[in-house]
Amino acid sequence: MADAGVARSDGGLHSGTLTRADLSDIVHNRLGLSRAESAGVVERVLYHMCHALSKGKNVKISGFGSFILRDKGERVGRNPKTGIEVPIAPRRVMTFRASQIMRDRIAS
């Protein structure tokens, strides 16, 4: 997996969460693009990922993981307070499965 400078340290993170701004700063620092160009690159990558998912395609990023869409069928749920059965409508859900490389890096 390409080293984006994130795994070694906080990489300029302001909190425990990596944000779009953090990704843009990393692109800016590593590639030397202007801040506006770096933000544009990050936005385009995220746009293409979201667009593919919205069209029903899975997204796989080698060395990182896969965003997988699943269609869940209708099922019967139960209101825990009253015990009344309630139908739960069918829906599409997205899951993320980390690659083995990512799991190994997180574990160490």
Structural notes for this entry:
- It is a single chain.
- The chain is of the alpha+beta class.
- The chain folds into two domains: 8-56, no CATH class; 58-108, HU Protein, Chain A.
- It contains three helices and five strands; from the N terminus they run ααβββββα.
- Strands 1-2-5 form a three-stranded antiparallel β-sheet. It has a two-stranded antiparallel sheet with strand order 3-4.
- Helix 1 (20-31) packs across helix 2 (35-54).
- It is elongated.
- The chain starts with 19 loop residues before the first helix and ends with a helix.
Q: Please identify which CATH superfamily of the largest domain we are dealing with.
A: IHF-like DNA-binding proteins
Number of domains: 2
What structural class results from the helix and strand content?
alpha+beta
Number of strands: 5
Please give the CATH class of the largest domain: Few Secondary Structures
Strand order of the largest sheet: 1-2-5
Task: Briefly say what this structure is.
The chain has 108 residues and is α+β, with helices and mostly antiparallel strands. Helix content is 37%, strand content 25%. It is built from three helices and five strands.
